[in-house]
Amino acid sequence: MTQKPKPLSTIQVNGPIPAAQARSIIEESLREAILDGRLPCGTALRQQELADLFGVSRMPVREALRQLEAQSLLNVVQHKGAVVAPLINNDAVETYALRSVLESFALRLSIPLLDASDLALGAQYIEQLETETDHAQIAKLNRLFHMSLYHKAPNSRLLDLIEHELNEEERFLRFHLSSMGLGKLTQDDHRALLEAARAKDIDKAIALLELHLEKACITMRRYLEQQSNR
């Protein structure tokens, strides 16, 4: 009987890792593997196994796992240690309500500081979303577009909270985008939001963002109800 490969075997490590970059490289490698499903929900990540894989001590591994836990990509479970977190849970609707508050505040702070390069980057993400068909890339581009409008907000804690929520949404959309009916249809919302930001019309941009998130929340609520009725 053929044994399935262990999840960690899907992570490629290219040569020795510089000590100064170990934590960030480990964090990014694990983050990508979680987001694209190579490390499925429930996978236990042992510090020593990771240290052996990356050829480092356990200290940068421990720090990387803490960062991923802070992003809600990992849970710490008794007797198992760090475990890849579930894709989504039933508080998703409440999470969207929280996102609306946080992202509206970040947008209000960020818009006055956005320059031409920020707006051009947002437009680039929209163009890519218009033609992209891979659900993993669509989910990633969606996150990047939103952060391109928020990232100038001079409140790092606020941005950390928002990116945390966007990370969760990205993971979920990678696996359920087609069944939820999301994707290309959202680009009209994104274009309108970008144009309001370009015009420095903060109130209009916030109203558009709230409507956009409310529509996504309704779609997710319906999807979760369908799943619970199966």
UniProtKB/TrEMBL annotation:
The lineage of its organism: Bacteria, Pseudomonadati, Pseudomonadota, Gammaproteobacteria, Pseudomonadales. PROSITE patterns: HTH_GNTR. Residues 20-87 form the HTH gntR-type domain. InterPro entries: GntR_C, TF_FadR/GntR_C, Tscrpt_reg_HTH_GntR, WH-like_DNA-bd_sf, WH_DNA-bd_sf. This is GntR family transcriptional regulator. Keywords: DNA-binding, Transcription, Transcription regulation. GO terms for molecular function: DNA binding; DNA-binding transcription factor activity. It comes from Pseudomonas viciae. Coiled coil: none annotated. The keyword Transcription regulation applies.
